[in-house]
Design brief:
alpha+beta; 2 helices; three-stranded antiparallel β-sheet; homodimer; 10 strands
Chain lengths: ~180, ~180
């Protein structure tokens, strides 16, 4: 079962009639289909873009979530991409919105899928260029030395996996973590 | 204007009533909103996963598209991610479906956004492990030496950008191309 919002779709968004499920011609899986207008309602995972901002002394910036899910946990800035923007633009916008922080050149770190909620997290690393402060949906910002990352208080498995890759790329020891 | 299929949404997929547009509380942009059930219909870009398969001699595998858009053009195997699978699983599945090809370890090459249709293309490089043949939606498969890539006959700007990054990473000269 998925918690993706479109998993709960019942009506055709084009004509408003009730959806049913069927395997469309040329497809191999059951999809939500409208027998009135013919629209096949594919459910796509949703891309999220985020940034691990790094200060000159090697500390990384995390923000404390002020909203559910995982209120109170630490995460790097990131959020859902909007239509019309690139992954890089979304990553910068979210870093500005959540941490009031400008970052320099983005360096792709990895792509982390969370199959349950149907989210694909695209993560960049970038140098921090300004002083951060808590923005929308955050209660606190914090700089963490690479050996002080709060591994037990991170928001998502994708947060843990990306920070782990970031640390390993720099040759930094990371604790054994449940995946 | 976007050609994303959800740009044409007119009805709420949860309750079937007509959608309208409004700026939801805490948001800054106009969204499709249902005043009957309160659902906010965010339109997300759709993630695609693909692989540039590489043979031992350094040739890359491309497939010729047998469907629109860009029928007849060359592209590396790839397609829309399904809900419940990871980006890596989607990339392997599409390579199997389109080129009947198994590939080895996936190495993330880049992420390329196509803002017009609202598509985010996640591209891996991987060693080819079997002999390919044309699969679903393809008319032909071809191995191309790095200096024989058909730059003028590639399907999408993301195809060109990913192959360009792949070539540059290997220190291979690429022609000046319109972006």
């Amino acid at each position: 079962m998925s918690s993706h919002p479109h998993s709960f779709s019942r009506f055709c968004m084009h004509c408003g009639q009730r959806l049913t499920t069927a395997v469309p011609e040329g497809d191999t899986k059951r999809r939500l289909v409208c027998f009135d207008c013919g629209f096949v309602h594919y459910i796509n995972p949703r891309p999220v873009a985020g940034v691990i901002p790094v200060r000159e002394d090697g500390h990384v910036l995390l923000v404390r979530r002020a909203i559910e899910p995982r209120e109170g946990a630490w995460v790097f800035p990131g959020g859902f991409m909007d239509l019309g923007e690139t992954a890089e633009e979304a990553a910068r916008r979210e870093t500005q919105e959540e941490a009031n922080l400008e970052v320099g050149e983005l360096n792709l770190l990895g792509v982390y899928t969370r199959p349950g909620p149907g989210v694909v997290v695209i993560v960049y690393e970038a140098p921090a260029l300004s002083e951060p402060s808590p923005g929308a949906e955050c209660s606190e910002v914090g700089w963490f030395a690479s050996d002080r990352i709060p591994w037990g208080e991170l928001a998502f498995d994708s947060t843990q996996a990306a920070l782990r890759d970031w640390a390993l790329r720099r040759g930094i020891q990371v604790p054994e973590l449940p995946v």
